[in-house]
Amino acid sequence: MRARQRQHVNPLGFGFETFRGQRPRLQPGRRTEVEVGCADAQFLFERAAVDPKANYVGIEIRDFLVAEVNRMAAELALPVQSIFCNANNHLSELFAVASVDHVYVNFPDPWFKHRHRKRRMVDTTLVRHIHRILQPGGTLFFQSDVWSVALAALDVFERHDDLFENLAGEWSFWKEGNPYGARSWREQNCEQQELPVWRLLFERL
């Protein structure tokens, strides 16, 4: 699709404390699917190409990628939109309570250095945001090719077993592959290079 750009942005920066993006425009009566950290939104574009009768919203902290995704969506006439914001701060402000069917977190930035791990996306705050916007029975799908990131995400979600049920069983990774018929660029790259991917699938209680 497009050239890959992986510039990291510090999500704890002061500039992300206030929401400065455009709020999502949702068609009523349609299913809503949200990807947190959508980058170039390849995953959402593939979802929309298969089923264009839903709202597909990508949350992204890099404004230049937001602009590119929205330009591409208009060019392809697909119901995909990207919203500029820090999901850990503002996700639950963008959607009504229990209004989202699926949330995806595909290959979040790993922040390998120990002093940077506080910047990782999946934390208690994000889990509570996701729980608030998902409808009961809605799903959260997570993927990473970094073992430590996947294990940390599993730990965070399992510590909220009053909010989510692990559909693979307690403290287990999802082993049935990607059930959504769409791939982010990172997942596609992992498949081509035969790299392992760790997945989680949780249902909102």
Care to give the gist of this entry?
With 205 residues, the protein is an alpha/beta fold. The chain is built from 6 helices and 7 strands, in the order E-H-E-H-E-H-E-H-E-H-E-H-E.
Judged by helices, strands and strand pairing, the structural class is alpha/beta
Annotated CATH topology: Rossmann fold
Count of discrete domains: 1
Q: Helix count? A: 6
Assign the CATH class: Alpha Beta
Average per-residue pLDDT, rounded, comes to 90
Task: Reconstruct the topology from this structure.
Blueprint: E1 31-36, H1 42-50, E2 54-60, H2 63-76, E3 80-84, H3 87-94, E4 100-106, H4 124-133, E5 134-144, H5 147-158, E6 164-166, H6 185-193, E7 198-204
Parallel strand pairs: 1-2, 1-4, 2-3, 4-5
Antiparallel strand pairs: 5-7, 6-7
Helix pairs in contact: 3-4
